[in-house]
Structures are given as structure tokens and as C-alpha cells.
């Protein structure tokens, strides 16, 4: 692998925001994740939980609740508005004021025809889901106090609403309340403190399960309105509940960071009478669990500690595979950093601002080198407006910076010799109004923006400004696949449309055969013109653009199969680059390791050791050759956001230790720990 | 013929079973039955020839109990009466026993099979003989753990045939590597299909949903910080009890999982828990040989045996002459006074007077030395913490016996009495002075004397300080009359006069440092015995020369205070041999090879209360006192003669005679009193004699009260018989039997037999009734009877018409 001078960068203070709500779409296996900054992520459960789409949020607009109505996704927040999202364009379709004050909760009936909204003023509003939008239908009987949680009976005839101290059962047809269930304060709680029902679930047999602020999960008989069973789960709040589709398992997320599972079991085997029994407790979070999902074979939970945890239920899984392992998603599955190789600049993308840093310099030799010049922050670029940044890029020469929000794209000319000067390029072509993905050509003379309707706009850059060149549009394309990188926009229907960029031509050059799993990173090797792609299921493809077919190496990889340890990794590769000196070296990284693939070396055997750098080092020089294989993996650096090889063969490694993220979180609820 | 039965384990914590009024507990070779009210041992069920490993109530009869033992037998006892009912010979070492109330007549035992253990179902033969061979074995499960807590029986899973849930104990390969989640114990819910398991890391898992699809699920509870050693469900399944090394009993509520109650400070790691069948009482047995009985979640009684949890640090066992109790280390920081006869701890003396904290690796004060003076009015103790010189902390405490309080009171505390740790300590046996000699590793020995009685508070102070050529002293010993002090310095034994503290002479016998020293007693008091690692030496103090020496590795050397005998335990290739000899005679009185495995740690001669009069040469040395010794496993063993065993057996039979009253001390006291009364009364013939016979003489009352109500004839029928039986017959009892026989013969002749006549009490009533009018002749009587049986129904028909 050779030795590199490594810039170990830890000054990118990336801070993800907390998970607020989760919603699952069973037909397409999509999980929608709403975060407190208003951003929305769509994970594909069928495709290794790859984060397919991200809709950036907006300042002052937090999401409180999410609901799928069929294929359509709705959200509501404390600003009192309902939002429907456009899944193709990755933006809001429209927003509608519910006119009931802040909205605390939102649910859709199982048929996908009606939305119920719980408002601050104590009303539950029903909206009808139409083809082109939603329409207000009626108000249910108004109550005193805010509606904090809602649940539909699976038949859609009843609606259960949780409030402070009370659970109401409504008849959805008449709008009148059927039952009023009083929820007691826990013993020892102060009189002034009311028991808040944070979450309710209505089951098909009429049973109502509620989770409240005194830490109880209560099971009610919905027909008679009596309490059947009380489970004291925690001393703190039970914030979220979710029931599996077959209604045999229920999970509750608590403020302690635990997820507690309940199962509907017969007490004596073979008998009919079943009970909800508290079974397992999962402790994967340090802070409040704000949202949980029970997906039959796994429990998905997210909360204040910003990570999303997918915990498999091993009793439901027959064969243990990499897909059934515990997964934690910390970082977005896309790049937040761009790097200028020649100018040694780094551009960091934050929520509403960009940071431009120049790398430091060092001298001498040894394990840790003394720093000659410290890295310096050159620029802090804030965007205008409330919208969050969607994507950004720095040109390879270091002379251009481009940043885009959902509605606005800006291009800046950057000059950093001794003094920094930045000028906004004023006259941008009108077609280029926003972008989902941006990149520069390798000589920094062209800018490519992937935008709506699967089109890619090409702009020519020069000292004077930029001029619009053309728009590349695949012929039968309907949906844009939104994470293509480097001059490539691809569509899932036709396959990947690849544009040859050595000669800018107007026509699509060729099409890469379609593959079932999404592309997490790809890049064109400038020396060989091969397109190198890594998919969410960790498969690797190399496609020769000149011959319009897979290369021999790629065919060899698939004939032989990748090493099982490689396939078991649970974080996707987020960046692919090439060594400028040796074109056969491909550098790629995920969150826990970076890897250099030497295409000249043989592939690893199935039963051999995959991570073998340490063993190789201990071997004598002659034997090393025999034992080495193509995958050279380095795990020295953890929690990687970005890895890039600079011109002078030094490596830039951007780490964001999870401990630093945890340190910035608010303190968790106080818990007595043994021996403290 | 050597007539000592060897080893008898005095006590060891065993698995046990609880029953509402009696607590049954496996203890050594016997099963003990305790009363839960009075904490007294009611019966000791002797019979097993090896250690009893398990007891289980007979599910078919709640007054019977099975016990299994390493001797390969399962015995069925009536524990109320203490009678052995049946013995089933299995022929393998049985390590635990289980019964199921769905399987009557079948017991499940765990046997060793080749390399691993196997759970085996045994069908007990139902023949009438007392000794039976159970050969009908069928293996249920192989490779199980021999620990009794590792297997449990559950209730019916399906109504048809599968009835027991037996848990395999293997290291489970769960998700995390390196997690200490090995199983330690298991319990089954009495009603639900729920299994509780305890784990090495202190977690308790409740497993449910054992269906065919293997979709079982569990919930985890965590309170214990160390391995869970015992688990038990209450009979109704409302509570789960767990215990571990923390000596806290935790009561979990099965319905409300987060609710739990604690019963802390039970004073020892919990080894077993069991619940009485009515759920009213719990009992826990502890590793320090203690049973706690808990009713309504409060400690109601404590049965404390010989504490043997901690390793015994005292160099000698001692006998408290006042209570005849054995003094040895008890709870950490305590000395226990243990009565050998009653197998019970009399009391525990807190020496360190600090709260003991359970924590691994924490260095705490321990009592390392103790000495009692001849009249047991003074007790000297040394407590010590730390083993290196730099961290060493130790102090000498002197305790005086307070007659009023009947306990020892602290008189003097001397912190750091020496520069380095004390190796030996002894009181002077001389009657006129109270003198203590301590020998320490700082090359000195110190003499401590009680201060003069000028002040009210007398205290101890150092009187003399002696050393010999800078050698390290190892041991010290006073002669029987207190006129000589022998202190061994490395290879040299020095003799000092306690009056003037001058060095009288030195005895030297290289090579090897002297380890143990003792003077001969009585007629052999001119001899001084010493041991080195290789040799046993005997010096004659009159000639100051070595009398004899023999090459043996003596672990313990001890003299009998009441005779000239000396006992020496010699370690020989992994086993220990016993030699009893007199210093004056070259030939040992008694030898016993391979007394036990490993080295013997301590031994002591305990004076008998009533000496045996055995004239057999081999057992004479046991006449005056009894030899007890501690093995490496801290088991207290003793020697007993055959005569003694027979006596114990006889006394047990005596107990069996009267089975209606439990053998409590109260009973013994009252019974003795009553017997005396009876004797007095019988000696003086009077009318009261008849009345005195009433309680035990009247079989009718007992029969009436002891027969189950549903088999009794109607009360109206019994009434006259019963009342008749209460009448006092005024004739001599001796004539009765003949008459009874006669009357019985006649009854056979008569066609209609009276129902009550076949029982013995019936006979007696007949006799007594017959005696009441003595004037009637037999013929007349017959006539009367015939008259009574004649049908007079026609009279009623007459009157009605």
C-alpha cells in the first residue's frame, strides 16, 4: 500500500440533528425519517437501508409528525402547517395551514384516504386525501387541551386521541367521543404534574395501548374503557409506541434511551387467552428515544442522540446474514466535504453555511509530524434565506465554489493567494435555478448541475463568467436518481446514463446496465476512462466507457465474488477517488475504514484474511508478495467523513469522532448508575 | 479391630426443602429436620453412608421425603417421626434429585456417566420390602450439570404427556462475545410457561413462548452485581426470589416487573432459596452454614451451624472451658463459639468491630490469632490487615470475661504491639499470674502482664522483651505448670524461666527450623516435643538431650490436656495419617492411615463430659477426650468408637417410641420431669396411679384423635365406647389380659360380632365394662346380651296400634 503523509482533519464540526419522527411505507419498504431541523430522509429498507433521498429542511420549521398516505408523504409541525412532499423533485409540493394552532400529531388511516391532525386548540381535524392535494373534511368534538397523540383503529372507524391526563375515543363517522379514559399520575408524582399521554396505539381487537409521562405503558380495553394491565417501564417518560403489523409485538421508546418490547403471548402454551408481556429491553441510545418503528423482524429507533438504530429481532430471523445485524446510522450517505487537490483547500457544508479551510503543512519524519503551518479557516459563507443547503462543491483548481438550496443556486469566484477574495458570479442562466447534485470537470472548465426532471445542465466557466452550454436529458427518463456523482446522472428506469466528458457532446454516450441496488459512490478514472461504481449492497463494478462494457477486472470480481467480510460491512462507500500516480489504485472509504484497491494484485480468497495489513507487516519481505491481495484496508482512522489523496501523495482524512457529537448533545435524563 | 468409624462431616450447607412447620435440610451424611418456629433440630435422619446431596418431598405423600446421597441410594423417610421407610439402591453416585407431581412413582436423578452427567428417570419399585433395588433406569438427558440448581421441573406444557421442562446448562453463544452470560441456575414458574434463569453477570432472564417454532423470547432483569446463585418462584407464581453473593434476598413481582423488594444483610452469600408450599415462609441457606427462615418478608428465625465460609486463620482450635464450645473464626472479623454436642453456634464475638463490606479484592481486618487462658477469663486476639510490611496494620486485643453479662468485654487494645506480624501467642497456665507471651517476626518475644489492681481499670502492659542472637522466633509454649517457657528461634529451642526471665538452656537439633512446640502432660511433662518440616523431635528436659526423633512431615501436633497422649497428623503423599502416642513410649498407641485427603489444618482434643470406659487398647485414648480436626476443605471431622455409635443409635430408637411429640428441649425437660414424677408415683402405690396412666395409657383417645375423620364410624356410635374407655377401672390390670382372651373367644362363638370388638381398645372397653358389675357371672352376662339382641319390635307395633 505504501506510506502516506496523512492530514488528520478534525476541525469539521459536523453536527447531525435529532430524529423526531419515523414512518414506514410497507409496500415499497421505505422508511421516512424526520429530523428536528426539518429535513427529511428516505431510507430504502430493501436496499440495505440506503439513504436514497434527502429533502433539506428550513430554519424555524421543525417537523413533529410524519405520515404516509399510500405513496405520498405528509408532515406536520408546530408552525401549524401540513406539508406534502414531492418525492421526484425532492422538495415540498405544497403547504396548508391546518388552522388549529401548532400541530402535534398526524396520522393517516390504514386505507390511506383520511388524515387526522391533532392540534393545540384541542381539535382533531380530518382531512381527505385527494389526487391533487388534501381537503378539510370535518372537526371532531373539541376538547380542552392539546391533542398529543392519535391512532386510528385498523378498520378506520374509530380514532383514539391522547391528551394530558385523558385518552379520548372518537367515532370517526359521527365525530362524537365514545369513551373517556382517565390516565392516573404515577404514585409519588407531584399533584401539579399531569400525566401526559405521549403516544397511543389502537389494535384491531379494540385494545388501546398508551405510553405516558409517568413511565407507564397501559393496556386498555377499548370497548369497556377499563384498564387491563399496567407496565411500569421507566421512571421517566414513554415517548413513542409502535406495533407490528400482525399485532403480536409492540415496542415503546423511553426517555432513558431504552426501547422496551412487549409481546402478545399466551401464558400457558396451547391456550387461547393471551397477555401483553414485557420481554426484551434494548439499550442503544444515550438520550430520549423520540420515535420507534416495529417492522416484524427489526426495531428501528431514533432520538435525541441523532443516530438511527436498526435492531434485529433474532427470534424472527431464521438465517443470520449481514442484513440481520444491528445497524447504527450516524452519518448521511453522501458527501459533505469537497476538496481541491491542487490548491489544498477543503470545503465543508453545514446546514446554512459553508466553511473553506486551507490544510496545514508539516515537516520532518516520524509517526506524528510537527506542524509547520496550522490549518486556517479562510472563509465562512452564509446563505441567504431560511432554506438549508442542499449541495455544494469546490472546483479542483480551487477557483470556484458553488452552493445550492432547493430554490437557489449561487456560483462564486474564489481567489486565494495571499488575501482571500470572493465574488459572486451574478448572471447565471435562468434554467440553472437549483441543483440536487453539482460537480466540476477535472480541469475546472465546466460545471454540471443535476436538477429536476433528470436533466443535467452544463455550464462553461471562464475568467469572465459562465455561459450555458446545453442541457443533457435522458430520453425516456421520468425520475432522477438523485445521488449520482461526477458528471453522471442516472435514472433507475433506463439504467445509468453516462456522459462522456472528455469530449463534451450533446448526446448520451452510452448506458450502463441496470443493477438492483442503488449507487452510493462512483467516479470516472481520468487515466483509463473507466467508470468505477460502488453499490449499497457493497458490490463493485467497473465499466469501460471506451468499450461500452464492463472491464475484465469487473467481470473477474463478479465471477469470483467479493470477500464475505467485505459484503458484511454495514456502512456504504461514500467516496471513490483514484491515485494520480498509479491509475490502478482506487481509493474508497466508508465510515469505519478506507481501502485502496490495487487492480493488479489477485483478489482475496474467500477463506483468507481480508484485513491483513498487520499480518503482512510481520512477515518477511519475500512472503509478503504471496500473501498480499487487492484489497488493502486501513482501519486506523474511524468515523470517517471523507478521504482524498492530494497531488503530493499525501492523504486527507476527515474524522468526526462520535464522542464529540455526544459531547455536544444536551445532558440525558439523570439515571442512577450502579457504583456511582 | 479398629472401631472408629472414620470421618463424619459435622455439617455442610446443603440443598434443602421447606415445609410449613418443618424445614428439612441435607447436612453432611444425614438429613436434619428443623422446626421453623423454634429453630430447633427435631430429628436427624441417619442412614446414608456418604454425603447427602439432595432432598425432595414425596409428591404423593406430603409427610414423606426422598433423600439421595453419593452412596448410591435414595431413601424415603417419614420426617415427622424420623423413620426410614424405604431404601432404594441405585448403584451410582447421585448428585441431585427431582420429583414431579405428574410422575408419581418416578424420580429423576442426576448420575455421572462416563465423562459427563446424565439426567435419569428411575421407576421406584413398589414392593413392600424395606430395601429395594431400583434398576429401572431410563436416560432422559445427557450432559447436564451436576449442580442441583441447574435443573428444574416445570408444569405441564401440553396436557398429554410432555410434562417436565428440563434445562440444559451449557454456555450459550449469544450475541456478544466475552459477555459473562453463562447460566448459573434455573427455576420454572408453577403456573405459566415461564422459565427464569440466573446468569454469571447477575442478570435474570425470564424466558417465555417455548413453542415449536423456537420463537422464544425473554426479558432481562438486572439487580445483582455478581452471579445469581439461587432462584425460586413462590407457589402461586406471584413472586420470584433471587439471591447471590451480596447476601440480599430480592423479591421480584412477576406481574409488575420493575417492582422489587429487598431483604438485605442476611449475613452471608445465599446458596439456596426455597418456599414453603403455602407460600407463607421463605428460607435461604447461606454459604457460611446458616439457614434463615423468613416469614412475611422478615427474618423470623436463624439456624446457624459452624461458620466455615472464611478460611480459618487461627493457628489453634480452642475450647472454651466454660461452655465446652469450640472457638474458631466465624463471620469475617468475628470469633464463633460453636457447641460440638448441639451442632450449633452458641454466639459470635465481634472482634474487629467494623462493618464488613463485601467486595472482591478489598483488604479487611481479620482475626489471625486468638488465645484463651486456662480458666477462660481472658481472651487475647490479634487482628491484622495487609500482608506486606509496608501496609501491615495489626493490633492485639485483650478481652476479659464479664460474669454478669456472660460475655467477653474489651479490656486493652494494643496497636502495633510488635514491629512485624505476630507468629505465635500463648497464655501462661500458671494459676497465680496472668501472663501472655507473644512471638513476632521482628526477632523478639514480648511478655505482657495484667497491671496491678491499684486502679479500678486494670490493663495489660509489656513486662519483658526477649530475643536470642537476632534469630527469628517461630513458636512458643509454656510447660503444663507454667514454670518453663519454650521459645523456638529458627533451629534453636530456648527455655526460659518465667520468674526471672533468664535463659535456662538451649536445645538444638539442626537441620530445619522448629515449627511446632509442645510440652508433654502429666507423667510425661519432662518431655518437650518439637516438629520441623521433616522430623518430629522429643527432648528430655531432665537430661537436656534429645530423647528420640523420627522422620515424618508433621502438619499438626497437639497434646491431650487430660492424658499423656499426643496426636500428630503427618502429611504423606497427598494424604494425612494420624499417630497417637505417648512421648515416653517409643511405639504409637494408635495409627490411622489416610484419615483424609490433603493436609489437616487444625486439631484439638475435646474433653468428654462423661468418659467412656472402653478398655480396648486401641480406643483407650478416646476415653477421656475426643479428637476433632479440620481438613483443607474446612470440614470438621471427628473420631468416634463403635460403642458410641451404638449409643447414638439406641437413643434414636428411644425417640421413636413416642412419635406424637416433637423432640424439643422443652419436651425433654418436661418429659424427664414427668418420668421422675411417674417413678415416684409408682413407688408409692396410691389411687393417683390410675390417673397417671391416663394420658398415655388410653389408647382409645389416641386412636380416636389420630384416625382420619372420614374413616371413623359415626360419632353417636363411638360415644359410648369412648366414654367407657375414660372410666377408671378399679380392678387390677394384671387380670385383664386373660379375661380379654376369654371374652374374645366367646365373641368368635357368637354369631353376631360386635363391630368395636376387633380393635384392642374395643377389647379393653369390653373388659372394663365387664368388670364394672363384678357380681354377674359369665352365664348371666350371656343371658343379658342375648336379651339385648332379641327383637322387641313387636312392642313398638303394639304401642303404635
TrEMBL record, chain A:
InterPro entries xrefs: Quinoprotein_ADH-like_sf (IPR011047), UTP4 (IPR046351), WD40/YVTN_repeat-like_dom_sf (IPR015943), WD40_repeat_dom_sf (IPR036322), WD40_rpt (IPR001680)
Signal peptide: none
GO biological process terms on file: maturation of SSU-rRNA from tricistronic rRNA transcript (SSU-rRNA, 5.8S rRNA, LSU-rRNA)
Pfam families per record: WD40
UniProt-recorded Gene Ontology molecular function terms: RNA binding
GO cellular component, one term: 90S preribosome
UniProt superkingdom: Eukaryota
Protein name: Anaphase-promoting complex subunit 4 WD40 domain-containing protein
Organism the protein comes from: Electrophorus electricus (Electric eel)
Gene it is expressed from: UTP4
UniProtKB/TrEMBL annotation, chain B:
GO-annotated biological processes: positive regulation of rRNA processing; positive regulation of transcription by RNA polymerase I; rRNA processing
Keyword Repeat: yes
Stretches assigned to the WD repeat-containing protein 75 second beta-propeller domain: 317-634
Compositional bias of kind Polar residues: 758-768
Record keywords: Nucleus, Repeat, Ribosome biogenesis, rRNA processing, Transcription, WD repeat
Any Pfam family matching the protein: Beta-prop_WDR75_2nd
Assigned GO CC terms: small-subunit processome
Biased composition (Acidic residues): 738-755
Superkingdom of the source species: Eukaryota
Protein name stated in the entry: WD repeat-containing protein 75 second beta-propeller domain-containing protein
Taxonomic lineage of the native organism: Eukaryota, Metazoa, Chordata, Craniata, Vertebrata
Gene: WDR75
Amino acid at each position: 500500500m505504501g506510506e502516506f503523509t496523512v492530514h488528520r482533519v478534525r476541525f469539521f464540526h459536523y453536527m447531525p440533528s435529532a430524529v423526531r419522527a419515523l414512518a414506514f411505507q410497507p409496500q415499497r419498504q421505505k422508511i421516512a425519517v424526520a429530523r428536528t431541523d426539518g429535513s427529511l430522509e428516505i431510507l430504502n429498507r430493501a436496499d440495505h437501508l440506503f439513504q436514497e433521498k434527502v429533502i433539506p429542511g428550513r430554519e424555524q420549521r421543525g417537523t413533529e409528525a410524519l405520515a404516509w398516505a399510500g405513496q405520498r408523504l405528509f408532515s406536520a409541525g408546530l408552525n401549524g402547517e401540513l406539508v406534502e412532499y414531492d418525492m421526484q423533485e425532492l422538495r415540498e409540493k405544497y403547504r396548508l395551514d391546518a388552522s388549529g394552532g401548532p400541530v402535534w400529531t398526524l396520522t393517516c388511516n390504514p386505507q390511506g384516504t383520511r388524515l387526522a391532525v391533532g392540534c393545540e386548540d384541542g381539535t382533531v381535524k380530518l382531512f381527505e386525501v385527494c389526487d391533487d392535494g388534501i381537503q378539510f373534511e370535518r372537526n371532531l368534538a373539541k376538547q380542552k387541551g392539546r391533542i398529543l397523540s392519535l391512532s386510528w383503529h385498523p378498520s378506520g372507524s374509530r380514532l383514539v386521541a391522547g391528551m394530558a391526563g385523558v385518552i379520548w375515543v372518537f367515532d370517526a363517522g359521527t365525530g362524537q367521543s365514545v369513551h373517556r379514559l382517565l390516565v392516573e399520575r404515577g404514585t409519588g408524582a407531584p399533584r401539579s404534574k399531569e400525566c401526559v399521554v405521549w403516544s397511543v396505539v389502537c389494535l384491531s381487537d379494540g385494545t388501546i395501548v398508551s405510553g405516558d409521562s409517568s413511565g407507564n405503558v397501559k393496556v386498555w380495553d377499548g370497548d369497556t374503557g377499563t384498564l387491563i394491565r399496567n407496565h411500569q417501564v421507566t421512571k421517566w417518560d414513554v415517548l413513542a409506541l409502535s406495533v407490528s403489523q400482525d399485532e403480536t409485538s409492540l415496542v415503546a421508546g423511553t426517555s432513558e434511551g431504552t426501547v422496551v418490547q412487549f409481546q402478545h403471548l399466551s401464558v400457558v402454551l396451547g391456550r387461547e387467552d393471551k397477555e401483553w408481556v414485557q420481554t426484551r429491553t434494548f439499550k442503544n441510545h444515550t438520550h430520549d428515544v423520540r420515535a420507534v418503528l416495529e417492522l416484524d423482524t427489526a426495531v428501528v429507533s431514533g432520538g435525541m442522540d441523532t443516530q438511527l438504530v436498526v435492531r434485529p429481532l433474532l427470534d424472527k430471523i431464521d438465517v443470520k446474514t449481514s442484513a440481520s445485524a444491528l445497524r447504527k446510522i450516524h452519518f448521511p450517505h453522501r458527501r459533505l466535504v469537497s476538496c481541491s487537490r491542487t490548491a489544498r483547500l477543503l470545503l465543508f457544508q453545514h446546514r446554512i453555511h459553508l466553511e473553506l479551510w486551507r490544510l496545514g503543512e508539516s515537516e520532518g519524519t516520524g509517526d506524528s509530524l510537527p506542524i509547520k503551518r496550522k490549518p486556517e479557516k479562510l472563509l465562512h459563507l452564509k446563505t441567504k434565506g431560511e432554506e438549508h443547503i442542499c449541495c455544494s462543491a469546490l472546483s479542483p483548481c480551487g477557483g470556484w465554489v458553488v452552493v445550492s438550496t432547493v430554490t437557489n443556486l449561487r456560483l462564486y469566484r474564489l481567489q486565494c493567494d495571499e488575501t482571500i477574495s470572493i465574488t459572486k458570479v451574478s448572471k447565471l442562466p435562468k434554467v440553472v435555478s437549483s441543483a440536487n447534485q453539482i460537480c466540476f470537470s477535472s480541469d475546472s472548465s465546466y460545471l454540471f448541475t443535476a436538477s429536476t426532471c433528470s436533466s443535467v445542465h452544463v455550464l462553461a466557466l471562464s475568467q469572465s463568467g459562465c455561459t450555458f452550454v446545453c442541457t443533457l436529458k435522458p430520453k425516456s427518463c421520468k425520475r432522477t436518481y438523485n445521488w449520482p456523482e461526477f458528471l453522471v446522472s442516472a435514472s433507475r428506469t433506463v439504467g445509468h446514463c453516462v456522459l462522456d466528458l472528455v469530449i463534451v457532446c450533446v448526446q448520451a454516450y452510452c448506458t450502463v446496465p441496470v443493477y438492483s441496488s442503488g449507487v452510493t459512490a462512483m467516479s470516472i478514472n481520468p487515466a483509463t476512462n473507466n467508470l468505477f461504481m460502488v453499490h449499497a449492497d457493497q458490490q463493485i463494478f467497473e465499466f469501460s466507457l471506451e468499450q461500452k462494457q464492463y472491464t475484465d477486472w469487473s467481470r473477474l470480481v463478479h465471477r469470483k465474488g467479493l470477500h464475505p467480510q467485505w459484503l458484511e460491512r454495514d456502512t456504504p462507500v461514500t467516496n471513490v477517488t483514484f491515485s494520480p500516480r498509479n491509475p490502478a489504485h482506487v481509493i474508497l472509504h466508508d465510515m469505519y475504514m478506507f481501502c485502496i484497491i490495487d487492480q493488479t494484485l489477485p483478489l482475496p480468497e474467500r477463506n483468507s484474511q481480508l484485513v491483513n495489513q498487520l499480518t503482512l507487516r510481520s512477515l518477511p519481505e519475500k512472503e509478503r508478495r504471496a500473501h498480499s491481495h487487492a484489497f488493502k484496508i486501513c482501519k486506523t482512522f474511524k468515523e470517517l467523513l471523507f478521504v482524498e489523496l492530494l497531488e503530493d501523495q499525501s492523504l486527507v482524512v476527515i474524522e468526526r469522532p462520535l464522542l464529540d457529537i455526544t459531547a455536544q448533545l444536551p445532558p440525558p435524563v439523570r439515571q442512577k448508575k450502579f457504583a456511582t | 479391630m479398629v472401631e472408629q468409624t472414620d470421618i463424619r462431616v459435622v455439617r455442610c450447607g446443603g440443598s434443602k426443602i421447606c415445609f410449613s412447620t418443618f424445614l428439612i435440610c441435607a447436612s453432611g451424611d444425614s438429613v436434619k429436620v428443623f422446626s421453623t418456629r423454634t429453630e430447633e433440630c427435631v430429628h436427624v435422619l441417619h442412614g446414608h453412608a456418604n454425603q447427602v446431596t439432595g432432598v425432595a418431598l414425596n409428591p404423593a405423600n406430603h409427610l414423606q421425603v426422598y433423600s439421595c446421597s453419593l452412596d448410591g441410594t435414595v431413601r424415603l423417610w417419614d420426617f415427622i417421626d424420623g423413620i426410614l421407610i424405604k431404601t432404594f439402591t441405585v448403584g451410582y453416585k447421585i448428585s441431585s434429585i427431582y420429583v414431579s407431581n405428574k410422575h408419581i412413582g418416578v424420580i429423576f436423578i442426576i448420575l455421572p456417566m462416563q465423562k459427563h452427567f446424565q439426567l435419569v428417570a428411575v421407576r421406584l419399585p413398589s414392593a413392600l420390602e424395606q430395601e429395594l433395588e431400583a434398576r429401572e433406569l431410563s436416560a432422559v438427558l445427557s450432559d447436564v450439570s451436576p449442580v442441583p440448581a441447574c435443573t428444574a421441573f416445570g408444569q405441564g406444557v401440553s396436557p398429554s404427556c410432555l410434562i417436565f421442562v428440563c434445562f440444559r446448562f451449557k454456555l450459550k453463544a449469544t450475541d456478544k462475545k466475552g459477555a459473562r452470560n453463562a447460566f448459573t441456575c434455573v427455576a420454572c414458574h408453577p403456573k405459566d410457561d415461564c422459565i427464569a434463569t440466573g446468569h454469571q453477570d447477575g442478570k435474570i432472564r425470564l424466558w417465555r413462548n417455548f413453542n415449536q417454532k423456537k420463537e422464544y423470547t425473554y426479558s432481562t432483569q438486572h439487580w445483582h452485581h455478581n452471579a445469581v446463585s439461587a432462584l425460586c418462584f413462590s407457589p402461586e407464581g406471584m413472586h420470584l426470589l433471587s439471591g447471590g453473593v451480596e447476601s440480599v434476598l430480592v423479591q421480584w413481582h412477576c406481574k409488575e416487573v420493575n417492582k422489587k423488594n429487598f431483604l438485605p444483610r442476611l449475613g452471608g452469600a445465599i446458596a439456596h432459596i426455597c418456599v414453603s408450599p403455602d407460600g407463607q415462609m421463605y428460607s435461604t441457606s447461606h454459604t457460611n452454614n446458616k439457614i434463615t427462615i423468613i416469614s412475611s418478608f422478615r427474618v423470623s428465625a436463624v439456624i446457624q451451624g459452624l461458620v466455615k465460609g472464611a478460611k480459618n486463620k487461627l493457628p489453634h482450635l480452642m475450647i472454651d472451658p466454660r461452655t465446652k464450645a469450640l472457638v474458631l473464626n466465624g463471620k469475617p472479623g468475628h470469633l464463633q463459639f460453636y457447641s460440638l454436642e448441639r451442632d450449633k453456634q452458641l454466639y459470635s464475638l465481634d472482634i474487629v468491630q467494623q462493618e464488613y463490606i463485601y467486595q472482591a479484592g478489598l483488604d479487611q481486618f481479620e482475626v489471625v490469632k486468638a488465645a484463651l487462658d486456662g480458666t477462660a477469663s481472658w481472651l487475647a486476639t490479634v487482628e491484622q490487615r495487609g500482608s506486606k510490611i509496608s501496609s501491615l496494620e495489626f493490633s492485639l486485643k485483650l478481652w476479659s470475661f464479664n460474669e454478669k453479662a456472660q460475655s467477653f468485654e474489651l479490656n486493652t487494645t494494643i496497636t502495633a504491639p510488635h514491629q512485624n506480624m505476630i507468629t505465635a501467642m500463648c497464655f501462661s497456665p500458671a494459676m497465680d499470674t496472668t501472663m501472655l507471651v507473644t512471638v513476632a517476626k521482628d526477632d523478639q518475644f514480648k511478655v505482657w502482664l495484667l497491671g496491678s489492681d491499684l486502679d479500678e481499670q486494670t490493663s495489660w502492659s509489656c513486662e519483658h522483651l526477649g530475643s536470642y542472637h537476632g534469630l527469628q522466633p517461630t513458636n512458643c509454649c509454656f510447660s503444663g505448670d507454667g514454670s518453663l517457657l519454650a521459645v523456638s528461634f529458627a533451629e534453636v529451642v530456648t527455655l526460659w524461666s518465667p520468674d526471672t526471665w533468664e535463659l535456662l538452656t538451649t536445645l538444638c537439633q539442626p537441620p530445619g527450623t522448629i515449627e511446632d512446640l509442645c510440652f508433654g502432660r502429666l507423667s510425661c511433662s519432662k518431655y518437650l516435643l518439637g516438629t520441623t518440616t521433616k522430623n518430629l523431635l522429643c527432648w528430655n528436659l531432665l537430661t537436656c538431650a534429645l530423647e528420640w526423633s523420627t522422620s515424618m512431615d508433621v502438619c499438626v501436633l497437639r497434646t491431650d490436656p487430660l492424658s499423656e497422649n499426643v496426636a500428630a497428623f503427618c502429611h504423606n503423599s497427598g494424604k494425612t495419617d494420624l499417630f497417637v502416642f505417648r512421648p515416653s513410649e517409643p511405639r504409637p498407641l494408635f495409627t490411622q492411615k489416610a484419615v483424609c485427603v490433603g493436609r489437616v489444618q487444625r486439631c484439638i482434643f475435646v474433653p468428654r463430659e462423661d468418659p467412656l470406659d472402653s478398655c480396648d487398647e486401641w480406643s483407650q485414648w478416646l476415653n477421656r477426650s475426643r479428637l476433632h480436626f479440620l481438613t483443607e476443605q474446612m470440614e470438621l471431622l471427628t473420631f468416634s468408637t463403635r460403642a458410641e455409635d451404638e449409643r447414638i443409635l439406641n437413643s434414636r430408637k428411644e425417640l421413636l417410641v413416642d412419635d406424637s411429640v416433637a423432640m424439643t428441649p422443652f419436651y425433654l425437660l418436661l418429659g424427664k420431669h414427668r418420668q421422675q414424677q411417674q417413678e415416684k408415683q409408682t413407688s408409692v402405690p396410691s389411687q393417683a396411679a390410675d390417673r397417671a396412666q391416663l394420658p398415655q395409657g388410653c389408647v382409645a383417645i389416641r386412636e380416636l384423635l389420630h384416625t382420619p375423620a372420614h374413616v371413623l364410624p359415626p360419632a353417636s356410635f363411638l360415644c359410648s365406647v369412648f366414654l367407657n374407655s375414660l372410666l377408671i377401672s378399679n380392678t387390677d390390670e394384671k387380670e385383664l389380659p386373660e379375661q380379654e382372651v376369654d371374652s374374645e373367644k366367646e365373641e368368635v362363638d357368637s354369631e353376631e360380632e360386635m363391630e368395636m370388638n376387633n380393635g384392642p381398645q374395643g377389647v379393653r372397653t369390653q373388659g372394663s365394662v365387664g368388670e364394672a358389675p363384678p357380681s354377674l357371672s359369665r352365664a348371666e352376662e350371656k343371658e343379658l346380651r342375648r336379651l339385648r339382641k332379641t327383637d322387641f319390635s313387636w312392642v313398638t307395633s303394639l304401642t303404635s296400634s
